Each structure stands twice: as C-alpha cells, then as structure tokens.
C-alpha cells in the first residue's frame, strides 16, 4: 500500500512523462511490496506529483545545473525486506530518470529516493489506524505472509511512553 510523493522543479517533466509516472509508479511499488494488483490495492496506492518553482530547489545552496528529484515512498512496516527495498529504489529512480530524459552522469546525484516504513498502527485511512497485519489480511495476502508481517512488526515494536 504505497503512498508516493515525487517533488521536482516545474518544467522538468513533459505532460506525457507525468502521465507515465502516474501510471507506473504505483504499480512498481506494489510489485516490490509483493502485493497483488487488485481494485483493493489500487485504491490505496496513491501517487502525488509535486512541482516546485525551480528557484525553491537548491543543491548546496545553488540552483542545480540539471533537474533534481526527491521521491518518498511510504510503506507499512513489515511488508518489505531489504532486497525488495533495494529493487524498489532502483526501479523508481530509473522510472524518474527515464521520464526526465536526461539520465545520470553517475557523478552528480539527481534522484533521492527515500523509502519510509510507517510503524504499524500509525497509518490512518479515513480516520482509522491501520495495523500492518490487519491491512495484509484486508488485501488478501496468504496467511503465512500475514503472520510473517505480524512477526516482523512484533520484532521491532514502537516505543510507547504514556503522557
């Protein structure tokens, strides 16, 4: 159940490139989360394209020579192991650079992609907290995967300190 924010300078992407990113980024993230593409998972796989005035983006305090991008992909804790996070980072970055058309020179970073694991119970949908294992059940994952997610979340619990 990814939530994807892509921030970039206005004018960096053509309308067709934006359409392509809106069409592909959510599917890419679902696939790396190992979630089926169903109406239920599609309904909670959101992509935001956030254009910023170029003067509002800097690298080291200066305007970058080429457009730079920040992608933040929010996922529920317990859904992804590191190898799938690595694949997601690579494929999201590749999709952005393809849409940009400029590629990478390998020396100067152009895409920062951050995968943010949201702790179980802190992802809210329409005012209700979703817990990772419950969400996994809701989208129809196999019982053994649901249990694996529950175990992963239990192994790194949030620290709750009463007020």
Could you write a compact summary of the structure shown?
With 163 residues, the chain is α/β, with parallel strands linked by helices. Helices cover 37% and strands 22% of the residues.
What does this structure look like?
With 163 residues, the chain is an alpha/beta fold. The chain has a single domain (3-155), classed as Macrophage Migration Inhibitory Factor. The chain is built from five helices and six strands. The strands form two sheets. It has a four-stranded mixed beta sheet with strand order 2-1-3-4, with helices on one face. It has a two-stranded antiparallel ribbon with strand order 5-6. The two termini are 31 Å apart.
| Secondary-structure element string | EHHEEHEEEHH
Query: What is the count of structural domains?
Result: 1
Give average pLDDT, whole number. 93
In what range is the share of β-strand residues?
A: 15-25%
Number of helices: 5
What is the CATH architecture annotation? 2-Layer Sandwich
- CA(first)-CA(last) distance: 31 Å
What keywords describe this structure?
Macrophage Migration Inhibitory Factor; 163 residues; 37% helix; alpha/beta; two-stranded antiparallel ribbon; 4-stranded mixed beta sheet; single chain
């Amino acid at each position: 159940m990814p939530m994807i924010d892509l921030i970039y300078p206005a004018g960096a992407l053509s309308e067709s490139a934006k359409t392509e990113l809106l069409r592909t980024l959510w599917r890419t993230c679902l696939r790396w989360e190992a979630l089926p593409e169903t109406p239920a998972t599609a309904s909670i796989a959101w992509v935001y394209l956030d254009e910023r005035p170029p003067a509002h983006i800097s690298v080291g305090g200066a305007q970058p020579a080429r457009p730079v991008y920040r992608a933040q992909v929010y996922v529920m804790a317990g859904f992804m192991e590191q190898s799938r996070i690595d694949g997601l980072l690579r494929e999201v970055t590749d999709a952005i650079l393809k849409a940009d058309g400029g590629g990478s020179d390998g020396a100067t970073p152009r895409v920062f992609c951050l995968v943010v694991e949201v702790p179980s119970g802190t992802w809210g949908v329409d005012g209700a907290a979703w817990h990772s294992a419950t969400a996994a059940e809701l989208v129809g994952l196999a019982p053994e995967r649901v249990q694996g997610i529950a175990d992963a979340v239990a192994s790194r619990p949030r620290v709750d300190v009463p007020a």
